[in-house]
Amino acid sequence: MAGTSVTDDVKPRQRRSSLDLLPPNMSELRLVLLGNNWSERSSVANFILEENVFSSQREPDNCEKVRGKLKKEFVLINTPNLLHSNTSDMQMREHVEHCACLSKPGPHVFLLVLDSEDFTEEHRLRLCTVLEILGDQSFARSLILISGKNYRSQIPLKDIIRKCSYRYLMMENLEMEELLTRLRQTQTQVEIIMKEKEEENLRREHKDMTRKITELKGENERERKLRANEQTEKDKCINKEREERKRQREEDEKRWKKQKETLREECRKKVETSEKKAHLEREQREAAERKLEQCRKEIKKSQDAWDKEKKELWEQRHQDLKQHLEVEKTRSIKLHEEFYRRRKTWISSCFILTSLSLSLLFYIFHLREQKL
After folding, report:
1. How do residues 19-38 score in pLDDT, each as one tens digit?
2. pTM over 0.85
3. Are 123 and 36 in contact (CB under 8 A)?
4. If you write DSSP's letter for every residue of 11-78 in order, what string do you get?
5. Residue 331 three-state SS
6. For the chain, which has fewer Cβ within 10 Å, the N-terminal or C-terminal residue?
């Protein structure tokens, strides 16, 4: 990625360019943003969501959860500034518990947005505390985004990079494709580690069972050889003593067989319990997926009903407006006609008054001439 450099003491892991590393049976990818700069975390969150959801100026009082979709659905949880000294230990634990509640059944990747210019030893200690509270696999689930250029000289930041197995990217010229690739690689690596750990536990249990059975067989074999040697040394003993030893040997063999059957039964029960647990988890996951699908259908149904209601409302308003315009048009025509009628009446009245005035003037003028 542009902006990422390799040093002798900080070497990022080799990356692939695939965008389809998320396991197909996973319904969503849950991301948790942590860091020492709210503005940087808001920018990264908006970059992932491809819209301005978080304000870089307003820092929230609690964790905020937003859903989105990039190839697969994902949940993004942005946290307040947990690394600052003005946040008490009690407030930090409350925020962490709230974050864990929002990301149930658990986050997949912790995206650590760290400002190299302002990342101190105190920030490192508080970040380690937060990740330890969130789980013993938190560092294995973390991917670091670094802003700034002097991260090579920052010992606290280099320690965090080492704890996260050198999974980091530079925010300068960061591209969505590469960020998605690294997120999915981190999740895939975590799944592989968890699967290997589970397989190692099963192998260890099987190895312990095999060792116990081998020890029991060895003890039984040693006892059998000891009894055979004693039988050889006491060939001249009476038949009663010989029969007693024979009976004792048979009882020991029965006891060994019983112990062997008991161990086999315990092993079988553990296998059945593991299978039942896996089956129950699969049923729970399928039930959750069915519930999610039902919720989507209900939301779509509600949206369709709302769209229909909105369409009917707009049509009704259109009809009302049309009727109102018709009424106003009719009223305007009537006013126009009334205006012309009154204008015609006024003109006729003016003409009559003018004629009468002229007649009166003419009469007065005529009388005046007669007097003269």
Report:
1. 333 344 445 778 899 988 88
2. no
3. yes
4. -PPP----S--S-TT---EEEEEEES-HHHHHHHHHHHHTS--S-SS---SS-EEEEEEESEEEEEEE
5. helix
6. C
